[in-house]
Amino acid sequence: MDFRILGLDPAPFRPMFTMTDERLRELGVLRVRIDSPRSAPDRITLDDAEPGETVLLLNHVHLEVDSPYRGTHAIYLRENGGERFDRINEVPRALRGRMLSVRALDAAGMMVDADLVDGDRIEPLIERLLAQPAVSYLQVHFAKRGCYAARVERAPEPPVSV
């Protein structure tokens, strides 16, 4: 089964990238300089910020549903990160080599299934979870810290030509 992995839409966050540190603090957001490699996975590009780069650290509602599974957590956003990750059957670098929690949710935002997986072996788990008819989409979280990482959906069917 083909799948689509999505980073966050950058549009709602763009105004923050030009705010002063003082204004960001008023909003509960921190501007942080990265010192270590693979310590700040960007949720838009789904790549890691490099040492020396700055990121915004903020709380984000990653599951805005009216269910007990509604969720928020801290995320990193690179200030000059680039385009939103939106690819079919491609796992982004930020998910590789990390322990992940993959949560399968139905249309009402209720958790149907979940499992842990090494990011280097995520594809079979994605396929298994998306094969369940009750599952609408998956959320991937970094298991160690619990932070939201990305959304996974079934890939759209290609148009049929006649």
Automatic annotation (TrEMBL):
Highest taxon of source: Bacteria
InterPro entries: DUF1203 (IPR009593)
Protein name per its UniProtKB record: DUF1203 domain-containing protein
Provenance organism: Roseateles chitinivorans
